[in-house]
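Quick start: read one record
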Amino acid sequence: MTLPPTEFIPGPRENFLRRVGRDPRRWRARLRLVLFAIVMGAVIFIVQTVDFPGAGNVKVEVGQPSPKTVVSPISTSYTSEVLTNEAREQARENVQPIYDLPDTRVARRQIARAQDVIAFITQVRNDPYATREEKIVWLQAIPELHLTEAQAANILDLSDEEWQEVTKEALRILGIIMQQEIREGEEQKARRSAPSLISLQLNEDQAAAVEALVSGLIVANTFYNEEATQQAQEEAAQKVPPVQRNIEAGEVLIREGEIVTDLDIEALKHAGVLQRTRTWYDFLAAFIFAIILDGLIVAFVSFRRRDFWKENLPPLLLGSIFSLFILAAKLLIPMHPLFGFLFPLASMAMLVGSLIDLPIAILITAIHVILVGQFAAGGVELLIYLFIGSVVGALALGKAERLHSFVRAGLWVIVTNLLVMLVFRLPTLSTIDNQTLIELAFSGAVNGIFASSFTLVIFYLLGQLFGVTTSLQLLEISRPNHPLLRQLLLKAPGTYHHTLIVSNMAEEAAVAIGADSLLTRVGSYYHDIGKIMRPYFFIENNTDGENPHDRIDPYTSARIIISHVPDGVELAEKYRLPQSIIDFIREHHGTTRVEYFYHKAVQMADDPNAVDEAAFRYPGPKPHTRETAILMLADSCEATVRAMRPQSREEMLEIIRSVINRRLMSGQLDHSPLTLRDLTLISEAFARVLQGIHHPRVKYPGEETKTAPPAASKEPVVVTPKPAG
């Protein structure tokens, strides 16, 4: 629906700016665009970065007690990284350390060392010059053996024969032990096994000496393989499957006072109730994303509606509807899992589609759904549910030209909601309890009912409180029993008939060029409503053949004819008609001249240059919209065709084109967005309607051809000097 324009009357400053190439209307349009972009970008940025109080978000930290008991708002299943990592770490710990095979080089090295030690001890034992005390000190100085004084003395006290047996036994036992696996850290275990290997044929002193020699020379020959162990641990960890955690709606995630763990944080996050701490990277990303979405909206709206920024109301309406709905979604949807399915996003799409433009409504809905996906926990199902239901609702409502359109749109939204839910729930239908199914079906039905009802209420409020012309308001005032239309029928029946013809012409032309046909038709009903103040001064209402203009001067006649415009505006304001309808009354003559009486004044004046042309011009303004421009053309074409009575379609089309060209060349269409192609389509539409009304008739015998006088209130066509009425 086309929103009502705001009249712009240029003043001295505006005229100066226009002369220097700065059209104030263009700058105002750019200012509106910039302000709209700033506000929309700010709203999108806030929705991404600000967590509203009470919106279901919890702020907790690991290691700190929970400030309150938190319950999951949704049922969800997710792969728990915390539990998976714990299970894999346990698998790593269960892997035994891996050691290399015993190194025979170590055994040979120790045997060689044992022989060197035995040779040294033998040399000490046989040293004739050293004292006993010196020999004990020398034996204790052997680094590997760590002999005590008693052990050293025992070795010195052995006879040569006993010492020979000890050395042989020590080398034998050391060889046996070093051939076994001795791991790092397990040397003591191997040393404890040495006494059990000593031959029982040796006496106690010999056995003690053997044990002392062997124990000191036992070292690890099997070493830990860190790389192989880590590889085995990783293989064991990779075999652990991801751990799934299921959370039911209403399940307690953490109780008040409990110490928060990583597992709690993870559960809160997947339940969609965790308020995370944002960094400046998050704000930067949100800012860039806001610019992208904001730029997309502005560019698309500018492409779809080139006149969108010319008035205050359209940007204000679009920005307000989008902002209110996205902020409400941010506040309500995270509170409960069903709130997302109850949220009436379809109402936003229906409002924008019917008041502004359907493709713009679809784009706004898509962006709304993208933003909801950032804070809603319903997943893809909720987003598709909201988007498809909204688009279907907007398509079903259309321009809302009938009251039952709202009922039809609500039913379509309900059916669509239930089908989307069925698509997502059908694969797991057997595992879903009946209560959940009933709740979802109830939510889908209530969503459709609430969306259509809310849209109807907003339509009414916009029309009554904010002056927005809605289709319901237009349908209400288009009833034939409206007081003004009733007066027009009774007081000025000729004008009423003319109004019906003009409305049909204008509606057909509006459909042809894609303008608002309902607004055009209703505006046409009221464009001549001011004529009921002095109906008999207009030729179409004069039935007795007497022309009241014959008794008054051209200036007075012109003033009476022109007064039907301000009279109509006064009546429209008295009966509280929408501003867009009042614009039809103001603009349907633009600043044209009442040609018949102007020429009559010129003929009567002694000096034609002394005639005040301004007294014969309508006050305007010129048409600012396609709809009011169509009415101006239809009004003029109907009067001219009625006066000239063409005998063929080609002749009629030529007259229509001539009238339109005069309006175009006189500058009356300068402020309207009509294109030359639109004018071609409009002329063809007018011809189709008028051909059915003014088609040639069979002339019966005795019938005289009469020439109708021109209508004084229309663009005159000078046919005869007879004055118009």
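The beta strands are 70-71, 76-79, 244-247, 252-254.
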